[in-house]
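INFO  loader      accepted 1 record
INFO  loader      residues=212
INFO  predictor   begin
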Amino acid sequence: MTEKSDPTTELLRLAAEGNTEGWGRLLASHRERLRRMVALRLDRHLQGRIDPSDVIQETYLEAWSRLPEYLRNPSVPFYLWLRFLTGQKLVTLHRHHLGRAMRDVGREISLYGGAMPEASSAALAAQLLGRDTCPSRAAMRVELKIRLQDALNSMDTVDREVLVLRHFEYLNRAETADVMGMRQSAVSKRYVRALEKLKDILGTMSESVAEV
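INFO  predictor   done
INFO  writer      dumping tokens
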């Protein structure tokens, strides 16, 4: 019985041969996860000024030019390589637009996210609260978002980064372990602990809403 080849490996082979259609299919399969990562880690001062799609498009152009380099030494899975290049683009954009302001609290370069801006608590809180356009609940939503941001900021730094990677960026356990430089078993423990903390936070938020 012939083993099925890995789709990514096959598409990379086609791309290496100059097949742009295969390259396009490969990139399309990763676009949504990268877009989500950019949206989480793009500084709030740049949101509305920089389109995540433009960041990804620039990354894809660089990835195409550096593909031979990657294929000579594919030390990480292809998606993580794309993610790393995207993170470098974000760092460059932050430095260009924010300059010294990057040193402010909340805009530090994450030590655990592959040398890229860390996900802001504001972006995480917005994801957790979801969309609610009801004007009568606007003030309560702002208050809950602030409290949720404070709670997220109080989490252990490593636990929070694992939570971001697994729960928000949709990296699997192996990918998360690779990014964090940790054992998969340690990632699992951190993720469970972070989820328990998040559950407690959301539970407290729900009780607060019920009391209003």
